[in-house]
Hints:
The chain is α+β, with helices and mostly antiparallel strands. It folds into three domains: 7-92, 2-Layer Sandwich (Uridine Diphospho-n-acetylenolpyruvylglucosamine Reductase, domain 2), CATH 3.30.43.10; 99-209 and 431-445, Uridine Diphospho-n-acetylenolpyruvylglucosamine Reductase, domain 3; 212-423, Vanillyl-alcohol Oxidase, Chain A, domain 3 (3-Layer(aba) Sandwich), CATH 3.40.462.20. The protein contains 13 helices and 17 strands. The strands form three sheets. Strands 10, 11, 12, 13, 14, 15, 16 and 17 form an eight-stranded antiparallel sheet that branches. Keywords: FAD, Flavoprotein, Oxidoreductase. Belongs to the oxygen-dependent FAD-linked oxidoreductase family.
Amino acid sequence: MSTSVNPDVTSALARAVAGPVHSPGTGGFADALAGFQAAARHEPGVIVSATGAEDVRAAVTIAAGTGMTVGMQSTGHGQAPGTTSGPSLLIDTRQLSGVRIDPGRRTAHVGAGARWHQVLDLAAEHGLAPLSGSSPHVGAVGYTVAGGLGLMARRYGYAADHVRGLDLVTADGTARRVTVDRDPDLFWAVRGGGGNFGVVTAMEIDLVPVTRLYGGGMHFAGDLIPRVLRTWLGWTAGVPDTVTSSVGIVPFPDIPAVPEAFRGRVLVHVRVAFTGPAAEGEQLVAPLRAIGPRLTDTLGELPYRASGSIHAEPDFPHAYVGDTALLPEVTDETVDRIADLSVPGAPVPCVIQLRHLGGGAGRQPDVANAVGHRDASYLLQVLSGLDGTDQAAVADVHSGLLATAAPGGVRRSLGMTFRATTVDEVRSGYSDESFARLAAVKTAYDPADLFRPNHHIPPAA
């Protein structure tokens, strides 16, 4: 249930902003609230559909003056709004969707509502590419400030490493241009600390001179899971930084929308993105092709603007939760546990992914940011749909897998953790020193803790 907001406050918002203001039960509220993630909706008492930065500034000012918490949403991929008490405001940023390319500087100015496919298409016209992720449907700004682990991470690092500036409205209602020169601590914190420090209305990011990839994926039958995982893990030990890859184990439902060869089966999907020549790519993937029969094999030359086809992730809203662990290695016990969870008809169907890190993702950028645990070699992610699935059972299965994979304690990738989190779980995404610094920046810029509906970093005690 949403927490109610005083009608006088709603009226004040309507007078102060150019965009529409929605209250529960009124026309437009459901559409403004709707996002990709159907399992963890925000529960606001009022929504402002901002038309520009001035709307955001006015809305935040009123929220701060009336004791409301503030959340923000563009596409809602993977959001984890958590719980708040008292009245709350949601700022819908999807109308802030402008994208401008500066080919001379190799940069893009990206509004808070823009999705990666917009940036991909416009940048491609100039022979450039953003450090986008596996899904082109994701909101570019939310992805980036959460870290942004993309398809070329091992070559170029995280998307957050390539932010030049941020337009940010802080809790005092100030619209700031945040750069390393103007606000170094805030610039460090937002890039990796997400929405804890204000509302990002736009960002300026570097583009890279990439127009094509050798990439795609291969599906193997589920009975090859252990062989695929062990072969892929051994293969990753020797590939150059120009290769970024992952493995996904996917239980496909037995429904007409799924290709007939996939229906009701658990398959293993090996994904590769290589920025080098296609002939070299063919040689690199030969050990993977030798694993066994393939149901599909899409590896080949493709334009970078079509890179979303590598993972081919769903683009329709659905309810799911997911957790992560950043790992120094993937043990035999973890491989066996993954195989045990991936039998057809399992009580808790799990999509389990391993992503290869290191390379550029393991190095600090020239301008440091808050992205945590760069020493990890692999990211383990487990996801489950919630339609008709017991949430307690899902949580038990997920936590059990993470305990096997990281017996010394879980270190999370918060940008890929798709559920509500406790403060201690958020703390696991950073070193102790970084978390303390994040809390200090929070204290400086949001001492009243206005921005709580996220992976929450509270002000320092």
